[in-house]
Specification:
By secondary structure, the chain is mainly alpha-helical. It contains seven helices and no strands. It has helices at 19-37, 41-57, 62-66, 72-88, 97-101, 108-125, 128-152.
Length: 175
């Protein structure tokens, strides 16, 4: 049996975007966000450093990080690029955070705790408008990562549902 040829219904030919124009639009967007929020790279550095200092001292999520991060310098540098891209739309972060989070032993409780530490740090170190800008984005990130982790563990969560890892219960050994 012959396979019919696939035909292309339509094609939109667009000229390649002018790189200078794209760069100018991005620069204007970054400047607008900076002006509206007061966020700059120095604030991002302070937020990332302050937040991860809390994470390293935290009894609940600290061990998850400690088990995977030997040298905090490169991790903090990546997180500063990440938050620059998220908060200012700079586009300097080129990583893929989802695959790094999927194998972690985490669930809604961990994301809630991460957000609690992040929000406290943002409120301590940033003016209110900037703190809210960071927090709104952090909540979206946490929600997205939680959904991804749930999906990777074969769990589909519906609207308003949260992902909880199955808890193993101890039972005595029987001989």
């Amino acid at each position: 049996m012959d396979t019919p040829e696939r035909t292309l219904a339509f094609r939109i030919d667009r000229p390649e975007p002018d790189r200078a124009e794209v760069a100018a639009r991005r620069e204007a967007a970054v400047a607008r966000i900076c002006a509206e929020t007061g966020i700059d790279e120095a604030m991002i550095d302070a937020l990332v450093e302050g937040f991860y200092a809390k994470v390293r001292e935290d009894d609940f999520i600290g061990p998850i990080f400690a088990e995977r991060i030997d040298d905090w310098g490169p991790h903090l540098a990546q997180m500063k690029l990440f938050w620059s891209s998220v908060a200012l739309s700079t586009g300097v972060y080129q990583g893929r955070p989802m695959p790094k989070h999927l194998p972690l032993p985490i669930d809604a409780r961990h994301f809630d705790h991460w957000l609690k530490l992040f929000e406290a740090t943002a409120h301590e170190l940033c003016p209110p408008v900037a703190a809210e800008h960071f927090i709104v984005r952090a909540r979206r990130i946490a929600e997205s990562l939680e959904l991804g982790v749930a999906n990777a563990n074969g769990v589909m969560v519906g609207p308003g549902e949260r992902y909880r890892r199955p808890e193993t219960t101890w039972t005595p050994a029987t001989d």
